[in-house]
């Protein structure tokens, strides 16, 4: 027997005496591993016939000395030493323990030994790795562990993997694992036997080119995350994969390319979105005045602003359709548009939608006026067969199917006949292409006048549109003729009140017990609209008048006032 190994630790270094000579290693996992392998290879072996054996007890003592220089104190530590000894011996080609005694060995050398088995051919394993295919789920080469183990077993022992002993299988597996690791592959244990995997290298230039083309094609619109990942994989690896997980290198390429094209590098709701347009400080100055000064165009849908003119007025040089939508919906811009009477949504108009018709064939994006009043003196209504009357004014609640305002003008008999038909037994009528439900005069008041020409004008007004007749506990209506004062520098501080129907404050004040001041009207109007307490009816369309519907819910309006006072937007 050789002298027991001596191991010591000092100043973070591990020193192992091998054949009387000290060898120093780092006192970490890698250093201890190398010390064990060096020590095992230094243990003298014995030959029995054509076989070579390693003393199991000496191997155990060596591993114990390296792992526990102060000695083994627990059963768990002993079991760990046994497991590491078995694995380390397998790694250098020695199998399980066998008893050797006379006459195979001298009586003094009897004991437990480990037989040396033929080493696995490393080149054979590397050749098999080169033949590995590409997986469908992840961008990597994959090969089942059992394929390599079987090839190595056939070459080493001439037997299939399933026909080898447990000791032989352990030897093959340990050696193949080490060869694979040295070749830069990893072992994945997702199945019982596992597989060896190696990530595919990323072709950076094609990946960037694919992403560049995708983002140029989208022209500043949001892009699906799945589309970005597919194009990145297609460029980097020549194909796509089921998994959306990107390697760190490819993630970097995607993030850099997105940022270069003005996109956020972090997805939202399954898509990458362009960065919001930031207005320059000078563009935000007098924003409302700039929008009010833009020349409107006329479309068959009503008056509108060309989006291109709005963007130019805001000083934005290059912007996509999606970014324009976000810009128009942005807080300050949308408020400024609303205060000068325009929508916050975009509408596409073909050349024939414009009045007069635009030249060319391209559609144009416009922002329509919120309240779009038509004054068609020839518009007629015929509820009584053969007796038509003119309807110079008509406003409809298309939510409640109510008439808010209707004026009939014509010969006395014609007006009388149509009035009788409207108030008659048939509760449902179609007026202005909208379904109307009437129940006599229960909800309306009648205003009648005789014109100088002898014709009659009869107006039907909903009681909730009358300051005098309204019920303060029910929603009320506001009539809006769509007109607004011209912009002037002198009254710019009153801009929030320019387009508010004149009866808004007195009718709201009548409905609520809260103390309201007339100068609060702009704030109340703006915040009432934001909270859907004020709703524009019939999409803002009307004949001479459009109508708004206001909910007089005290708790909601009280909250609006409280927040205004707290923020000092309102004061007494």
Q: What is the overall pLDDT average?
A: 88
Judged by helices, strands and strand pairing, the structural class is alpha+beta
Cα-to-Cα separation, first versus last residue:
103 Å
Helicity level: 25-40%
**How many structural domains does the protein architecture include?**
6
> From the alpha-carbon coordinates, what is the Rg to the nearest angstrom?
44 Å
How much of the polypeptide forms β-strand, as a percent range? 15-25%
Give the overall shape.
elongated
Q: Which parts are unreliable, with pLDDT below 50 for 5 consecutive residues or more?
A: 485-497
Strand order of the largest sheet: 19-20-21-25-24
- Total strands: 29
Largest sheet: 5 strands, antiparallel
Annotation field: number of helices: 18
């Amino acid at each position: 027997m050789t002298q027991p190994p001596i191991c010591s630790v000092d100043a973070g270094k591990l020193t192992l005496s091998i054949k009387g000579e000290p060898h120093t290693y780092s006192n970490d996992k890698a250093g201890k591993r190398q010390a064990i392998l060096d020590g095992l290879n230094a243990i003298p072996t014995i030959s029995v016939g054509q076989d070579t054996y390693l003393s199991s007890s000496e191997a155990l003592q060596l591993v114990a000395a390296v792992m526990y220089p102060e000695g083994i104190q627990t059963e768990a530590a002993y079991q760990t030493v046994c497991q590491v000894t078995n694995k380390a011996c397998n790694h250098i080609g020695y199998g399980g323990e066998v008893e050797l005694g006379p006459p195979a060995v001298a009586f003094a050398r009897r004991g437990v030994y480990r037989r040396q088995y033929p080493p696995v051919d490393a080149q054979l394993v590397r050749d098999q790795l080169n033949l590995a295919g590409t997986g469908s789920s992840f961008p990597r080469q994959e090969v089942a562990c059992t394929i390599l183990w079987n090839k190595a077993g056939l070459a080493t022992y001439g037997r299939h993997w399933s026909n080898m002993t447990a000791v032989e299988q352990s030897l093959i597996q340990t050696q193949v694992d080490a060869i694979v690791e040295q070749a830069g592959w990893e072992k994945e244990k997702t199945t019982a036997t596992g597989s060896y995997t190696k990530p595919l290298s990323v072709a950076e230039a094609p990946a960037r080119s694919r992403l560049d083309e995708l983002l140029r094609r989208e022209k500043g619109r949001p892009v699906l995350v799945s589309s970005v990942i597919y194009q990145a994989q297609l460029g980097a690896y020549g194909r796509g994969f089921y998994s959306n997980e990107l390697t760190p290198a490819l993630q970097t390429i995607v993030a850099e390319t997105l940022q270069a094209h003005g996109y956020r590098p972090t997805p939202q709701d399954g898509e990458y979105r362009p960065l919001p347009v930031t207005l320059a400080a000078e563009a935000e100055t007098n924003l409302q005045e700039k929008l009010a000064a833009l020349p409107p165009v006329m479309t068959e849908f009503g008056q509108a602003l060309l989006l291109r003119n709005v963007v130019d007025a805001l000083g934005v040089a290059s912007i996509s359709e999606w970014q324009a939508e976000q810009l128009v919906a942005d807080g300050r811009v949308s408020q400024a548009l609303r205060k000068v009477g325009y929508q916050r949504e975009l509408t596409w108009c073909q050349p024939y939608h414009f009045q007069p018709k635009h030249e060319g064939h391209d559609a144009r994006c416009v922002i329509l006026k919120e309240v779009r009043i038509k004054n068609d003196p020839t518009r007629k209504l015929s509820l009584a067969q053969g007796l038509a009357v003119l309807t110079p004014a008509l406003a409809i609640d298309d939510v409640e199917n109510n008439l808010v305002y209707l004026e009939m003008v014509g010969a006395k008999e014609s007006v009388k006949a149509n009035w009788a038909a409207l108030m008659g037994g048939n509760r449902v009528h179609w007026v202005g292409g909208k379904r109307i439900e009437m129940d006599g005069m229960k909800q309306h008041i009648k205003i009648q006048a005789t014109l100088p020409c002898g014709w009659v004008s009869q107006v039907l007004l909903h009681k909730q549109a009358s300051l005098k007749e309204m019920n303060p506990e029910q929603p009320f209506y506001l009539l809006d003729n769509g007109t607004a004062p011209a912009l002037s520098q002198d009254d710019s501080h009153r801009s929030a009140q320019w387009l508010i129907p004149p009866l808004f404050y007195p009718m709201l004040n009548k409905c609520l017990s809260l103390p309201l001041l007339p100068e609060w009207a702009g704030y109340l109007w703006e915040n009432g609209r934001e909270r859907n307490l004020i709703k524009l009816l019939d999409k803002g369309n009307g004949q001479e008048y459009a109508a708004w519907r206001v909910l007089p819910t005290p708790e909601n309006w009280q909250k609006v006032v409280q927040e205004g006072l707290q923020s000092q937007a309102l004061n007494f």
